[in-house]
Write a structure and sequence with these properties.
With 330 residues, this protein is an all-beta fold. Helix content is 2%, strand content 53%. The longest helix is centred in the N-terminal third of the chain and has 6 residues.
Length: 330
């Protein structure tokens, strides 16, 4: 009985309505101090938009090529979800939609399409963390699902019969990244390096002219990717730069899939390997701990020819991309 007054005096360890949850991890009010995982108990939903307009490409030697009359618009509408399971682990899911339009006034081409892209989900595990100053080392495992529309229509009758734009490569990716962040007062540096393993899959856009087949097994080249992003915090505003380097290997294609190791039957595509460099920057406005507004821009510095156009994920065009998004957390 003597415990009843003591228990009655203790506060309840729950949250009602939109009150802060007592079980969630603390979160800094500024971006420069936040680790690379969201923290236990936090749920985040983000809504974003990417706008790319291209009027050029790259030669096989990586030189800029200007189109005379063609124009390419490629947008991405993004929904992202993050949830902190524990203090050091996080689950995330990114769902993209794309609208693309290709116009050529000389040829009279005006083709567009809209559809779901290739969703990705992943798991982050923080290997090391220190709060003051912030040090965060994370292992990021990611899987890409080939759920997007992968057919470009029929080629019989010439290129004008292509009535749709593929949104997917038709195959899955499995990636692993090592990400790190180190704070130096109002400054921070983020970096990552990783490997993207691309599996083969049967795709509807692989055309075999001799056999009049539309479906074929396609394997894009696996990829090494590295990224570096410095950041400067000025009050509630964080300014950051960004440089991304990608190196990919030869792709392969084939019309047979016999045996257990089907990739052994594929033929390498000469000249399909290469590398690309993009650079840009942006701003993050920390409105509150539960609301961030982001804006950024990226410009390609070097790329390869459009061997797999219009698949932007493996054959990006030459043009700037501007992005904006809102992050809501509870």
């Amino acid at each position: 009985m003597w415990l009843l007054p003591l228990l009655a005096a203790l506060p309840d360890a729950v949250a009602a309505g939109f009150q802060a949850k007592t079980m969630r991890a603390p979160m800094s009010a500024v971006e420069v101090e936040r680790p690379l995982v969201i923290g236990k108990g936090w749920l985040e939903a983000s809504f974003g938009y990417d706008h790319k307009f291209a009027d050029g490409a790259w030669s096989s030697e990586g030189e800029a090529v200007q189109w005379e009359s063609a124009r390419w618009l490629y947008t991405t509408e993004r929904l992202g979800i993050r949830y902190g399971f524990t203090r050091s682990t996080e689950f995330y899911w990114d769902i993209p939609f794309h609208y693309a339009r290709l116009k050529n006034d000389v040829l009279g081409t005006d083709t567009d399409g809209f559809g779901i892209g290739e969703p990705k989900f992943g798991w982050k595990w923080e290997l090391f963390n220190r709060s003051v100053p912030t040090t965060s080392l994370v292992l990021d495992l990611q899987y890409k699902m080939p759920t997007g529309q992968e057919t470009a229509g029929t080629y019989v009758g010439g290129p004008n019969t292509f009535g749709t734009i593929p949104m997917s490569t038709g195959q899955a990716d499995l990636a692993a990244f090592l990400r790190a962040k180190q704070q130096f007062g109002p400054l921070a540096i983020e970096g990552s390096v990783g490997w993207v393993n691309r599996f083969s899959g049967v795709s509807q856009f692989v055309v075999e002219v001799d056999q009049y087949q539309f479906s074929g097994r396609f394997k894009p080249g696996s990829e090494v990717r590295a990224e570096l992003s410095p950041m400067l915090q000025l009050g509630p505003v964080a300014l950051h730069g960004n440089v991304v380097w990608r190196q990919w290997f030869e792709a392969a294609v084939g019309t047979t899939a016999e045996g257990f190791f089907v990739d052994e039957n594929l033929d390498p595509i000469a000249g399909s390997d290469g590398y690309a460099v993009d650079a840009g920057g942006g701003v993050v406005v920390n409105v509150t701990r539960g609301v961030d507004v982001l804006a950024s821009a990226s410009v390609p510095i070097r790329g390869e020819d459009l061997l797999f156009f219009p698949l932007e994920s493996i054959s990006p065009t030459r043009g700037p991309t501007v992005s904006t998004s809102v992050e809501l957390r509870y």
